[in-house]
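ok so i was messing around last nite and threw this chain in just to see what happens. nothing serious, just curious
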Amino acid sequence: MSKLIGLTGGIGSGKTTVAKMFAAKRIPVYIADEEAKKLMNKAEIIQAIANKFGKEIINNGKINRTLLAEKVFNNKEKLNALNQIVHPAVKEDFKSWLKQHQEFPFVMKETAILFETGGNKDCDLVITVVAPLSERISRIIKRDNSTEQSIHDRIKNQLDDDFKIIHSDFVIQNNALESTENQVDEIVKALNKIQ
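result:
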C-alpha cells in the first residue's frame, strides 16, 4: 500500500511547479485542481452547477469559468455550494487513480485546500509550499491576468501559511528554482529512508 503525501500551499505559492519536480523523481502526483477542471466538463457536473448557479453559467455546453469564479470567490456560501458538487467527484476520481498507482511506495496529492477539506487526515505526510506574498501575487497576475484585489479575495478564502506550516512534516520555501529543486531532493532522500 502506497504512503500518501499531501502537497499544499496557498494560491501562487508554486505548488504545481513543485509537484512536477516530485513527479520527475518518479513519485506519481495527482493534481486535484487540474482533475477538477476535467471533471467539470462532465455532463452531470455541468447540470448540477447550472441547477445551483443558473443557466447563464453555461456557454456552448461548457461552464463559463470566469462567470462562475465571479459568483463564488467573494461568497463563502456559494463557494461551499460549488465545492459540494465538485469535491465528491474529485474524491471518487482520486480513489480510482490511487488503485492504478498502488505499486509505488509514495504517491502525492497536490491540492490548495488540503487542510480546509480535512484531506490532511488521509495523508501519511504533508508538505507545504510557501513563497513571499508579493511573489505569489506577481505569479498569479502573470498566470491568470487577475487583478490584485481579486487575488487578495481568493487568498482570504484559504488558511494562512502559519497554520499550514505548523501542521506539515516538510515546508518548501519556493523563492528560487534551484533552491526549490534542492529542497525537493532533500525531501526525496528523507522519504527513501522511511519507506
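not much to say yet. The longest strand covers residues 3-9.
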